[in-house]
Amino acid sequence: MRTAVLIGTAIWTWLALPAPAQACHCNGSCRTALTAPVLFEATVVALDPDPALGGGQKFVRLTRVRALRGQAPTVLEMEGSSCDVEFKAGARYLIEADQWAPGKFGASTCGLTRPAVRSAGFMAYLMAPPAERPRVWGTLTSPVVDHRDFVQQGGGPPVGGAVVTLSGPVTVSTTTTPTGEFLVGRLPDGQYQVVVETPRERTDVLPPDPQPLWLGPHDACMSVDLQARPTSRVEGVAVDARGRPLGQVQVELYTPPHNPFRRDFEQRPAISDASGRFLFDAVPPGTYVTGVGVPRPNRYDAYQPTFARPGGQRREFTVAPGAVVDVGPIVAHRVEPVTVHGHVTGSGTVLRRGLDVVVAAVDAEEAGGWRAATTDVDGHFTVELYRGVRYRLYALQDGQRTEPVTTVAGDGPIVIRLRP
C-alpha cells in the first residue's frame, strides 16, 4: 500500500516542473506484499511518455510476461507519482502490480518490484516449501548518482562477498552473492541488529550503519535492502576575484540536470573554512556540478551564481568509485541586493491585483533560488533581488502561468503582460 503527499499550491507546482512535486511515503511489509493480487516477471520493451501530462507519466510496455499470481498486464500505466518505479528499457523485472484505477496497473517503490537479477529472496520464499522458506532476505548495493543511467529500484552496483550478521535471540551470519543478495532461513521472533562487514578489497565502500530489525509473530518474512557508504570525496577552494581565499562561503553539489524537488542523493552544503577549502565526503559515484548557489538572504554573504570548472570550460565532472576529486578554485563574486519594482499589465477587463508573481534565478541550482510577490490594486509589485543576477518571472492568473519574462536585476522596472 502506498500514499503520496502532493504539495498543492500553484507556486510549488510551477517550480516542480517537469518532475511531479510529490513525496513518497510507504507503509506495509513483506507480509502484505506477499498477498499482492498481481505478481509476475516481465521484460520492459518500451517506455512511452503521456503527452497529456507533459511527458511525466509513462506507459511501460512489457514482453515475455510470466504470471506468478493473478492476471498479469502487458502495459503498466504509471500515475506520475514519486512512488513510481523508474523502469529501464531492456531490463527484466519481478513486478508487484497495484491497480490504482479500473483497468490501470502501476508499480510502486513501496512494493517488491525490482530487477529480476535481484529477486532471488522473494522467489525463494514464493517457490520453496514452507519448511525451507527464508525469513529474511535483502540486497547490499553501493550508491551511484547519474541521471543518465540511474535505476531507482535495485540501487547501484551490488556489493558481493560482504558478511551480513543478524544478532538477536540467535546470531546468524551469511555472505552476499555476486549480485549483492543474501538469505537467512528460519529465525525466532525478537529484536535483531543487522551488521555488515564489507570485503577488505572494496576500498570504494564502507559498511552501512548497523540497522535494527524486529521480527514479530505476524512477520512471516522481511526484506532488508542495505546500501554501503561511498568513500569518494569532492574538495576545492573558494576564492575572490583576486584569488584570495574566502571563508564562510556556502558551496553546494548538484546532479545535472538539476530539479530542486528531486534530488538523487542527500548532500548538505559545505562551508569553506578560513583558508577557503571545502569538502564533500561520502559522495556517490556519478556526474556532478559544484559551485556557489544562487544568492539569497542568509547568514552568509551573497554571491553571484558561479561554478567550478575542472578540466577546462565544462562545469560537469565525474566522481569515480573511491576517488578524491579536487575541483579547483571557485571564483565567488559578491553581489548587492536591489529593490526591483514591477507591473503586471493587460486588458482592462483582466484582474491585476492579488496576483502571485513568482521569481526564480535562471542560474539557480537549488530550492532556495525563488521568491514570490503579490500585486497591489494597480498591478504593481516589489521584490528584493540581487543586482546583476538573471531572473525569470511569471504571474499566476487563475492557476495558469503568463508568458515568462527574463531580466537581469537592476534599477529598471519589470513588466509582465497578462493574456487578453
Please render the helix and strand layout as text:
Blueprint: E1 2-6, H1 10-16, E2 22-26, H2 30-34, E3 38-49, E4 58-69, E5 75-77, E6 92-101, E7 104-107, E8 114-115, H3 120-127, E9 136-141, E10 163-167, E11 171-175, E12 181-184, E13 190-197, E14 205-206, E15 211-215, E16 222-227, E17 229-230, E18 233-239, E19 250-254, E20 270-271, E21 277-280, E22 286-292, E23 306-307, E24 317-319, E25 324-331, E26 337-345, E27 356-361, E28 370-374, E29 380-386, E30 390-397, E31 400-401, E32 405-408, E33 414-417
Parallel strand pairs: 9-16, 18-25, 26-33
Antiparallel strand pairs: 1-2, 3-4, 3-6, 4-5, 6-7, 6-8, 9-12, 10-11, 10-13, 13-15, 14-17, 18-21, 19-20, 19-22, 22-23, 22-24, 26-29, 27-28, 27-30, 30-31, 30-32
What distinguishing features does this structure have?
mainly beta, OB fold (Dihydrolipoamide Acetyltransferase, E2P), Immunoglobulin-like, 4 domains, six-stranded antiparallel β-sheet, five-stranded antiparallel β-sheet, 33 strands, 5% helix, globular, disordered N terminus
Brief overview:
With about 425 residues, this protein is mainly beta. About 5% of the residues lie in helices and about 45% in strands. It has helices spanning about 10-15, 30-35, 120-125; strands at about 1-5, 20-25, 40-50, 60-70, 75, 90-100, 105, 115, 135-140, 165, 170-175, 180-185, 190-195, 205, 210-215, 220-225, 230, 235-240, 250-255, 270, 275-280, 285-290, 305, 315-320, 325-330, 335-345, 355-360, 370-375, 380-385, 390-395, 400, 405-410, 415.
